Amino acid sequence: EMQLVESGGGLVQPGGSLRLSCEASGFTFRDHWMSWVRQGPGKGLEWVGSIERDGSATQYVDSVKGRFTISRDNAKTSLYLLMNSLRAEDTAVYYCARVEAPAGNTWYFDPWGQGTQVTVSS
Amino acid sequence: DIQMTQSPSSLSASVGDRVTITCRASHSISNFLNWYQQKPGMAPKVLIYAASKLQSGAPSRFSGSGSGTDFTLTINSLQPDDSGSYYCQQSFGLPPYTFGQGTKLEIK
């Protein structure tokens, strides 16, 4: 069974840093792009960023560029999100998700982890 | 950036009803459109990918259609378990890969 388990969330002051982890199992981790998606309180879903299979390329939404860094360790089947200079508006549940690309150019997020809460507040 | 607009933002329907949720993209995205279901306190799950392909394990009462800028998620014979929020998401070209704002479905 495919599984993604996030950890590392918590309460942090504005301007602080936090590192989220996502441990994968049940599939060949190194064969897939991976992503982070967040959901603010009572809000919709927002793609945060993605990382290439070998970690050689990353993509980010503009609002986190220069502050967040996505990385991965294929030997440990783990994905990471380093968040610096955190702001109140970064408060959200953060999900890691596998990028599934069954054929052609189409792709989607599946599965998702259970999420980890990040709260930025003084 | 491509903006995704869903309608309605919420709806209430009865068991057995047919429900339709629409999603409109600000630019043509061909068929690069996915639909997710999210229940309260849970992670989203994909229902439909590439606009019309049913994800393995998703109930056959769910179907998707559309291409270009206009897309539809249809739920035939609504079941109590279908309550929750539904999101469209575009996976076209360069990032950001945006979601619609969501549709909250309540079962009467």
Summarize the structure.
By secondary structure, chain A is an all-beta fold. Chain A contains no helices and eleven strands. In chain A, a hairpin with a 5-residue loop joins β4 (34-39) and β5 (45-51).
How does the overall form of chain B come out from the CA principal axes? globular
Strand content of chain A: over 45%
Could you tell me the number of beta strands of chain B? 10
Number of DSSP strand runs of chain A: 11
Instruction: Give start-end ranges of low-pLDDT stretches of chain B.
Output: none
Helix content of chain B: under 10%
Chain pair forming the biggest interface: A-B, 25 and 25 residues
- Which sequence of strands runs across the widest sheet of chain B? 2-10-9-4-5-6
The SSE order of chain A reads EEEEEEEEEEE
Q: Sketch the major β-sheet of chain A.
A: 7 strands, mixed
Could you characterize the architecture of this molecule?
The complex is a heterodimer of chains A (122) and B (108). Chain A is 0% helix and 52% strand. Chain A has no helices and 11 strands. In chain A, the strands form 2 sheets. In chain A, strands 2, 4, 5, 6, 9, 10 and 11 form a 7-stranded mixed β-sheet that branches. Chain A is globular and about 45 Å long. The mean pLDDT of chain A is 97. Chain B is mostly beta strands and 108 residues long. Chain B contains no helices and 10 strands. Chain B starts with a strand and ends with a strand. Chain A binds chain B through residues 44-47, 49-50, 59-62, 95, 100, 102, 104-115, and chain B through 31-32, 34, 36, 38, 42-46, 49-50, 53, 55, 87, 89, 91, 95-102.
Summarize the helices and strands and which ones pair or pack.
The complex is a heterodimer of chains A (122) and B (108).
Chain A: E1 3-7, E2 10-12, E3 18-25, E4 34-39, E5 45-51, E6 58-60, E7 68-73, E8 78-83, E9 92-100, E10 108-112, E11 116-120
Parallel strand pairs in A: 2-11
Antiparallel strand pairs in A: 1-3, 3-8, 4-5, 4-9, 5-6, 7-8, 9-10, 9-11
Chain B: E1 4-7, E2 10-13, E3 19-25, E4 33-38, E5 45-49, E6 53-54, E7 62-67, E8 70-75, E9 84-90, E10 103-107
Parallel strand pairs in B: 2-10
Antiparallel strand pairs in B: 1-3, 3-8, 4-5, 4-9, 5-6, 7-8, 9-10
